[in-house]
Design brief:
The chain is mainly alpha-helical. The chain has one domain. The protein has four helices and no strands. It has helices at residues 6-26, 35-42, 49-63, 78-82. The longest helix has 21 residues, at 6-26. It is elongated and about 55 Å long. The chain starts with 5 loop residues before the first helix and ends in an 11-residue tail after the last helix. Pfam families: GASA. Keywords: Signal. Residues 1-28 form the signal peptide. Belongs to the GASA family.
Length: 93
């Protein structure tokens, strides 16, 4: 069947590779060098940029994951989401 429809197979393969690249980078497969730009996006909407960047970079270095967007979506990064302060609050922005 793949021999009869090589364009469809190729298109599906390209789509799957793109999806893997996107979701892989969200789910803990970041390289340490990816943390700075991801945290800049994550902290772009806050008025407390320095502390946000400090904790985001710390969390990214530990978890190799930063949730997409400027707020929420923490379920996309379980390590990032579950890391708590001594008081039980969220450690990662």
């Amino acid at each position: 069947m793949a021999a009869k429809h090589p364009r469809v197979s190729y298109s599906l393969l390209v789509f799957l590779l793109l999806a893997l690249c996107f979701f892989g980078s969200v789910h803990g497969l970041l390289k340490p060098s990816d943390c700075q730009p991801r945290c800049q996006i994550r902290c772009s909407a806050t008025s407390h940029k320095k502390p946000c960047m400090f904790f985001c970079l710390k969390c990214c270095a530990q978890c190799l994951c930063v949730p997409p967007g400027t707020y929420g979506n923490k379920q996309m990064c379980p390590c990032y989401n579950n890391w708590k302060t001594k008081g039980g609050g969220p450690k990662c922005p």
